[in-house]
Every structure is written in structure tokens, then in C-alpha cells.
Fold each of these.
Amino acid sequence: MIATSIKWTRHNLFGKPFDVALSLLVIPGALWLAYSILDWALTTARWDIIVQSLRVLMIGVFPADQAWRAWTASAIIAAILGAGLGCVFSFKPHHGLVLALVPLLMLIADHGDPQNALSAAGVVAATSLGWVLTSYLPLSRKAMPAAAFTGFIVVVAVMAPPGVGLWGGLLLSVLITLVTSVLSLPIGILLAFGRQSRLSSLRIICTWYIEVMRSVPLILVVYWIWILMPVLAPQWGLADVARGMIGFTIFYSAYVAEYVRSGLQAVPRAQTEAARSLGISEFDINRSIVLPQALRVVVAPLVGNVLDIFNSAPLVFIIGLTDFLRAGQMILANPQYGDRTFEVLSFLLVTYFLVGSMITYAARKLEDHMATSAR
């Protein structure tokens, strides 16, 4: 192993004179930067603000006495996500060990207070249960769509009593990401097929919609939906959260449509022509032959779209919602914590990085799974 490491280092870092100069410049700088960050994090930073403000960061201004609702909703969402992971790659013991670090870290951060740690352990257990279920019971995967739909309804029912407008924190950012990702995919697929339709009117409408959405900023779409929905449909009385999710879905559906359209164009035309010659209907051709191959091609862009949604969730501040980033700003607005800017922003940075890394890791496993299935 040592010989392999030396060979890799010589080949990749010191193979050419320019590589040698660049390595001697970058490596010491990177080591110094890493040492400085660790030294600040372990000796100077005061992380007690994160412990004291964890509830605000996780669930925003949601009532403290109703926090059990947020933990219940988190467990349901975690079970759905775990079941989704089980459809892609099997649960292994080291996955459980990594998940077990979450309640352990919360126990350490709360100085031995088991309340939040036990709640986090419940979320981890729900994730593991869903993951194991779909990993080792393939028949359970057929119930995934119905179970996920039911789960989201239960989440809304559990979280709604204190008031939908009180949803916030990281939980709100995750909900916006999940709802937008799930709804924008079928809408985007329909738009992609509509843009390639032989019906000129349908093709023009879909093309117009896609181009308009891709030509305006997301914040404008969210703001206009927030303003127009009470005017166009006052009888519905939609909450700000619902209007924000509608704006996100309308916007990102156009991008999904373009990703799917690029995948549709990658499917060899000979396959569709052969299917038509066999008398297969256009609907069956698109559903069974074209679409599976197209989605396999555009997995990476679609996952990138999910990351964009999560990173764009802070834009809901414009309609008065308290997302994860806005919760951090609320904490720093308190004069008592005015000197803790670096600690709060570092926690936000690490959390966004970890969530993005998990999504990327799952995407790579999904690509490997789909590539194996295609062989």
C-alpha cells in the first residue's frame, strides 16, 4: 500500500516540473489553511451558540412545545429517504455506524442531555428501517410510491396544527427540496414530450413555457406566484409555504424538461422506428422504450437540479418564510450573539456541504445501479 501511495504521488503530484512547482506551492498552503481552521474550531470558536440555537436552526420559529411534531415529521421523511436509498444500493453495517454518529454528536453537544439525542436516534432508526426494508425485501419497493405519497400527507397533517406559516429551519428547506423535486419531474417529462410533439399548438405552448421560465430569475417567479395566487384563486386560501413550493415547482419543471429532452434526443431513432413497425402504440413506446433510456442518460443533471433546489431554498425569505439560512441570520440579529458570526456561518456551511455530499453520493450509486441494470 505504501509503494502504491508513493507511485501515485510521484505520478500525479511530482511527474513534471510544473507539477512539482504547483505541488510545492499548493500543498503547504492547504496544510496551513487546514491547521488554521482546526486550531480556530478547537481552541477559539465558541460553539455553545449552536447548541442553544439548535431548535431555531432545525425548525425555525415552530413552537418549542410542539417540537415533537417536527421530530415525527423528520422521522417519516427519513424513512421515505431511507427506503429510496434501499432501492439503489443495499444497507451495510458501516452505513448504520455512520448514521449512529448523529445522535452521539447531539448527546455530546447537549452536554449529556438525552432528549434531543433520543429524538435524533428515532430519526436514524426510521432511516435504517426504511433502508433495510427495501434493501432485503424487493417486493416492498412496489409499495414505495403509495407509501411515499401517504407519508407526505401524514407529514403535513402532523405539522399543520400549530400553523403552516410557522414551518422553518432545515426542515423547511428539506421539505421544499423534496416536494419540488418530486413534482417537477413528471411535469418536466410531460413538457419535454410536449416540446417534441407533432401537434404544433402543444409544441409551441410547451416551448414558450420552458423558454419563459428559463429566462427569468427564480426569485421573481416565487414572488409573483405569492402575489397572484390570492388574486386569481382567493377561495383556496393557500399558505405562504404552499405558494412558495408552487413557485419552485413551476420554475424547476422547465429545467427538468430540458434535461429530459436532451435524454430523449440521445435515444437512437432506430429503436422507435422498429417499435412502430411492430405496431406498438406511441404511448407504450415512450413509456417502455424511450423514457427509461432517456432518464438513465440524464441522472447527473437531474441530481444537480435537486442540489440547485436545496441551495435556492433560502429565496423563500422574500415571502416571509424562515428557511435554514434565514434562521441563522435571525440568530445573528440578536445583539447577544453579534460576535458569533463565524461559528454560525461555519455550521451552516458544513450542513449545506454534508447534505450536498449525501445527495451526490446517492446519485453516484444510482448511476452505478442503472449502468449495471443496462448491461
Amino acid sequence: MSTTNPTSSPKPPKRGVPEGLWFRCPGCKASIFRKESEKNFNVCPQCDYHFYVSGPDRVKQVLDEGTFEEWDGHLRSADPLEFADQKAYKDRLIAEQKRTGMTDAVLTGCGMIRARRVALGVTDSAFIMGSMGSVVGERLTRLVERATAENLPLIIISASGGGARMHEGILSLMQMAKVSAALARYDRAGGLFISVLTNPTMGGVAASFASLGDLVFAEPRALIGFAGPRTIKATIRLELPKGFQTSEFLLEHGFVDRIVPRSKLKSEIARAIDYCGK
């Protein structure tokens, strides 16, 4: 004889929290609601830690809506050395393009900032650590040259932890000089270059165009430098100063002109353009 109550129904399974709604802040370790962070320019509402932002999202944050026009997006990296480590370079490029939705580690073009037309470049650390290969250098050089020809203020937002891209050897290293030379010609033509350093800005990028701005802004607590702190410490066998290679340390020592929170960057750039009469 069954003892089951025919009127009873099984309890519905407990509903779990969907993946990705919450994440832990690396700064204060608080649990952050992702949508709240996105509304706050991807900045922690508890401790003001600035999270990673993709290149396309940075374009949306800085430029007036719907004004971005991409330049030289058709350029693609070749594999001149037929380089291979754990994966062939040509296969790595395809995998990175699929994963990030970008064709290389930089977006360049023009748009409006508070109704002021500017030339804009943005590197993205998600694409092979934002390293500077031939395409990154060529796109940035063409960006600078077009800004020179059209007399536009130039904004480059750097997020590059990889420096020169080893997969392309000397062809990658020469991009440092090529972009810097284009910036020298832009400067002689009277252009205004605002360089924005974000976390991370390292290696050959920090040693070339990222450091050459007429004005150098930086996001709070960004890692900025050439070699990483652990590499330097292991090489010179000395204890490094507290906060070494952070934007705050570099502001104190004259390397950075101003630390600008992400939410205020657009307004600060517009104000600087007006102040400099550009």
C-alpha cells in the first residue's frame, strides 16, 4: 500500500546565482555586482579600483556616442619569422582575434569629445598583452600622420603590458622609433598630444610613444614602467620604494602630469584641448 500523499508535489530545485553576476575586487576583495561596476565605468564602488576595460569599451567611454570612425582596420599582422613557441604565431593571431573580437592590439580612428574632433588610439592588453607588433606600430604611425595632416588633437590611451611583440623580432622593436618619429613631426607642426596611461603601461610602449605626450594623464594606481618590479628587484638586488611604478609614485616624481579617474577623463581631455587652444 502506497503511503505517498497524492496531493503533495516535489519541491522545486533551488535556483542558483547565474555565473558572472558577481566578482571579487582585486583591490578591496569585496564582492561587486557586475552591472553596478559597469555603470560606474568599470570602477569598484568600494575602493575606486579601476578594472580592465576593453579597447572598444574605452572608445565608447571617451568619445561622444556614435561618432567613432575607425581608421586602417584592414591592416593585418603577417608572420615574417614563421615564429612558433607553444603555438605558431599565425595560429595565435587567429585565436586572439576570435577571443577578443579585435583584429590586433590597437584601435585607431577619429571621433568627437564633447563636440571636439580628435584623433584617437587605444591599445588593449587582452590581445597578446597589448604588445606592439608591426600592425600596432603602423596603425599608430598613420594615426599620428593623419592627425598632423588634419590638424587634430591626438589622444592615445595605452594599456600595454607586453612591450614590443617578440614574435616579430626587430620588426616589432623598430615600431618604437617609427611612432616616436611621427610624433616628433606632429610636434613640429604644432599638434597637441595627450597620452593617457592605464594599467598596465609597460615595456617598449612606456619607453616610446606613451611617455611623449605634451600632457600625460594616468589612471589611479596604474602600473607604469619599463621592466616589471620583480625583474628590477631580482637584477639590482635592492628593496624598491613602496608604490614603485604606480601612477601616484610617478606623479610625485614628475613623470605624470595628472592622475585622472576614469569617470572624469572625457571632461579633462576636453578641458585640456580648450585650454591649449586646439
Amino acid sequence: MLSRTLSIVCLIVFFLISHSNAYVILTPTPTINSNEINVSRPSPTTAPVYKKRIMKRANVQETLSLYQDWAKDCNENEKENEKEDIKGNEKLRQLWQTVTVYCGNNHVKTVTKTRTETAVATQTVSPDDNDNDVKCDDQCWSDYLWHTYGYGISVAQGFTGITCIIIGLYFMIFGYRYFRPTLGLVGFVFFALMTWVGLVNNEPLYGYPHTEIVYICVSIGLGILGGILFMFFYPLGLYFVGALAGLFFAVYIMSWQESLVIQIQVARICFIIGMGVLFIILVILLESYTIIFSTSFTGAYLFILGLDFFAHTGFINAILLIFDANPNHYNAYIMNRPVIVMLAFVIVLTLCSVGWQYYWNMIKETRLFGVNVVKEEKPPEK
């Protein structure tokens, strides 16, 4: 019995030793042929990496150059590329790689070009840079507008533009006159704007599936929900009339300079919030006058914004630069005469609307916002 036990133990020990040697002993490597040592094999082209924002960001001029490079890549003839591929020599062909280029208006295109000429989208415009001298010729301006709007007027642009124009006209003419419809439209605009901000900042690199449908349907759906809430919870909606006007007023003030008047992102956010709070306080202190100005200015700004979707002046780029912080998007805001004209007409329309609403509601009708004043009839004399 003892000898059998010792035999079993010896077998187990032998098995463990042989098993451990299998992990320790290395297999010999094959000998390298001396003739293959000096032969250089072409390495495969690495896939392009879409880099995110870097700490030191580019100025407006570099962003405009990026727009021009994208426009050249997105609009070039693919047949010409095929001819160049046939004519190119083997050494040059080894440098070519497939690059995904952002073609504006949420469209991307895959092109083939050499590494030395590849525009690597690593930088974006930063409000921290001072760009007092921006050089942009006719072709540069054309590519700048192409990156913002694309070619022509899309269905989404037309629908959004018409919606903004109609809402703007209502605010300028009937904003003070009708109470619940005004609160409903304020809720619609505020919720739709915040929904768009959330969508554009979380948009993936290649966009959403059916991007335009997503933006329109989701923004309108939540906008309608916000309009219904403000119509029924009117004590809250009343103060958002001033808050919405303060938001647009802050954006308007910052739009009077290329890359915006306020150059620091945190300062811009504080300025917008502070302006909204200021208008809420003015609603509490001077309700009638503040409501007249708020509806007039909001209507004028929305009207000009909607008109820009058809005129394509670059007016909307101020809003994009302020609210679009997506690292996959590259925004720049430069001013020229059409933009200045659009900004000036916001003031003109605001003053006209304030004069009209004040005369019609305060002088002629003696009306308070949301309060129907019924004149007491004198009892008939006996």
C-alpha cells in the first residue's frame, strides 16, 4: 500500500515538473535571412484620425482656410481623381489615403488625396483669439457661406425660416395684445431653442440618421410641449417673456464684432444668464413697458433670423458660435455689410414695433397685459 502511494506521488510530481517546463522553455525563433534585412517594405497607410479640439485653437483665418479646403475636396470631380490615380506613379500612390471631409450642412464625403495635402481637422475657431484683420476674398466668402448653408435653400432651412418669420411678425404686432397665445409661443421658442442646443452639441461625427428630420421633429415636439406648459402655468410663463428677450438681446449685443464681443466662453454664458435675469426683474418692476419691449425685440430678432435662412448673409453664425460647442463642428463668425444691415434692421423693427404696440395698447385701448379692463357703465339716470 505504501509503495503504491509513493508511486502515485512520484507520477504527480513528474507530471507537474514536465507541465511547468512547457511554459518556461521558449521555442526557437527562425533565422532571419541576411538578404531581407536591408529590404524596406512599404507600411500600410494608417487610417485618418478625426482629432478633437486642442488647447491652443486656431484663429478665424485658419478656420476660413479649413472651409476652403473642405469646399475644394467636397466639390471636386471624382472622375478627375480617377484619372490622376491612373497617371500617378507607384511612389506617389503609396502616399495616398482615404480621408473623410466635413462638407457642411451636416454632410460628409470620403475623398482620396495625398498625406502631404490632407487637411487634418484638428483646430477650430476660438473666441480667445484676437482677429482684427480677417482677409477673406470672394471665393473665401463663398466657401464660408457654403459651409454654413450649403448650396441653395434646403427644405429644413425653408421651413425654419418661414416659422421664425411668422412667429416674429406675431410678436411684433400682437405680442402684447394677446396673453395666452404669446405665452404659448414664448414657451415654444424657448423649448425648441434649448432642444436644438442639446441636439447640436451631442451630434455625432457623421450626424444623426436623417439629420434634418431629427432636428425639426424633435425641436417642434418639445417646443409644442413647452408652449402648452407656459399657457397653463402662466405665472411662470410671464417671466420667461422677459428671459427669452434677455437671451436674444445678449446674443444681439455680442454679434456686433467678429468672433463676438465677449471673447471668453464662461463670460459669455454669465452674460446671457445675467441679461435674462435682468429682464425678469424688469418684468416685475415695469411689467407693461418690459413686455412691450421684450415682445418687440424678440419678434424683430426672429424675423431677421428667419429672413437669413433665405438671404444667406452669415447672420446665423453668431448663434452657432455661441451655442454650438460640439468638438466635431467648426464655426466662425465674420462681419461684412449684409450682416451689419441685418443687425441694424433688428433695431429698426424693434423701434417700429414698440411704437405700434405702445400706441395701440397703452394709449388707444388702455390695456394691461393679460388683464381685460371693463369700463363700468354708469347707471341710467332716473
